Amino acid sequence: MLTTLSLDRRHVWHPFTQAQTAPEPIAITSAKGIRLYAEDGREFLDLISSWWVNIHGHAHPTIAAAIARQAHTLEQVIFAGFTHQPAAQLAHELVQRLPVGLTRVFFSDDGSTAVEVALKMALQYWRNHGEAQRTRFLAFEGGYHGDTVGAMSAGKGCGFFDTYGSLLFEVGLLPFPETWDGDTAVAAKEQAALAQLETYLAEQGDTLAAVIMEPLVQGSAGMRMCRPEFLQALAARLREAGILLIFDEVMTGFGRTGALFASIKAQVTPDIICLSKGLTAGFLPMSVTVTSEAIYAAFLGETFDRALVHGHSFTANPLGCAASLASLQVFDDEKTLAKLPQIETWQRQGLATLAGHPLVQRMRVMGTIAAFDVVAADAGYTSAIGAQLKAFFHERGLLLRPLGNVVYVLPPYCVTEAELKQAYVVIADGLAQLAVG
Ligand SMILES: *Cc1c(COP(=O)(O)O)cnc(C)c1O
């Protein structure tokens, strides 16, 4: 019989991977809680929540049972002209939990499509409003919004997509006022970002449709964090200028920053919000783009050209909706939000064990996310340090996947104090090994 790895090697193309130089993939057979079990008998602590999607731990029985029940009842139905209880109920439950005013839920399949929908919504909102000249978007340096063409355009500030430049539309970039523990220059960085916004407003204010950003934490750029105060100032200025604000909470949603949503933590209500990764607790691909009644109303009319021309084969897949509803149930049953400050404390204690290390810079924590930069001559996503540390962490049974020279820990919420302690011991060992050379 051919092994998983031999079949994989022959036929599979992996994401974000240079297959020629990457190590062999690790074949995982099962997972439970924070643990992954490999075919070859190894075990891993999943400290990045499997690319930031898992929140309650793997194979959570409540969610698995809800999906199984739904699969035996209604697995899928066309969502144009039809609806079903799991979708309607999920829309209702999300609206109850989102910032007040976000009341209309559009379903799609993944974070990238949630962003595509947000961009199309913003553009057409203005068009339907008689301001068809508002076609430009602003985004942030370092921002990442997914890999489809519109999402790559909005995320061109992350620098991954230069190869596809000819496909992308123009987006204006604002500096991201990144900050960390003990940073004394944050106010100046925020002023610079707001000043750049003023320049765009002065030069192209009446052609701007929306600003898109990852609130509080830029994930792929290296867990770069900003202050809630900055989001408040930005949102106030955009409201005054009459420009829409899109929050891409694909990563920050569902508890990551310590509150259910970063927008709640920052006390800023965007006009449009994108949610995905944690939505189904990491069980199934699904996303939503949620907006206000005012924006929804602009799409009503007698003609089809005013409608949002968007929809996917699997829009509002009932299995995904059932998983999401079960996940919200787990949030209630396990009082998950109340556990998050505890995780934040453990993360701070873990980082504190690295304080003063000559290779450790810019320590930062936001809710359940902790990160620091490793001093490197080749700082950035392709820094050799990332691959070196990743291999070391794998050897020691940790799934950690540094973003270049940025090491971060983003665990599922079932993580224990002992598991995080163990992680920081291994991280310190990894740094010691780098120091030796
Ligand atoms: C992961 C991510 C996306 C893209 O989501 P996919 O499900 O990978 O398409 C978009 N925005 C942010 C902030 C993300 O972290």
TrEMBL record:
Substrate binds at W51, Y144, K277, G311, R401. It is found in: Cytoplasm. It is an enzyme of class 2 (transferase). Pathway: Cofactor biosynthesis; biotin biosynthesis; 7,8-diaminononanoate from 8-amino-7-oxononanoate (SAM route): step 1/1. Pyridoxal 5'-phosphate binds at G111, S112, D248, H312, S313. PROSITE patterns: AA_TRANSFER_CLASS_3. SUPFAM superfamilies: PLP-dependent transferases (SSF53383). Its cofactor is pyridoxal 5'-phosphate. One of its GO terms (biological process) is biotin biosynthetic process. GO terms for molecular function: adenosylmethionine-8-amino-7-oxononanoate transaminase activity; dethiobiotin synthase activity; pyridoxal phosphate binding. One of its GO terms (cellular component) is cytoplasm. The modification N6-(pyridoxal phosphate)lysine is found at K277. It holds the Pfam family Aminotran_3. Keywords: Aminotransferase, Biotin biosynthesis, Cytoplasm, Pyridoxal phosphate, S-adenosyl-L-methionine, Transferase. InterPro entries: Aminotrans_3, Aminotrans_3_PPA_site, BioA, PyrdxlP-dep_Trfase, PyrdxlP-dep_Trfase_major, PyrdxlP-dep_Trfase_small. The record marks F16 as: Participates in the substrate recognition with KAPA and in a stacking interaction with the adenine ring of SAM. Its EC number is 2.6.1.62. Its main location: cytoplasm. Belongs to the class-III pyridoxal-phosphate-dependent aminotransferase family. BioA subfamily. PANTHER family: ADENOSYLMETHIONINE-8-AMINO-7-OXONONANOATE AMINOTRANSFERASE. Catalyzes the transfer of the alpha-amino group from S-adenosyl-L-methionine (SAM) to 7-keto-8-aminopelargonic acid (KAPA) to form 7,8-diaminopelargonic acid (DAPA). It is the only aminotransferase known to utilize SAM as an amino donor. Homodimer. This is Adenosylmethionine-8-amino-7-oxononanoate aminotransferase. The gene is bioA.
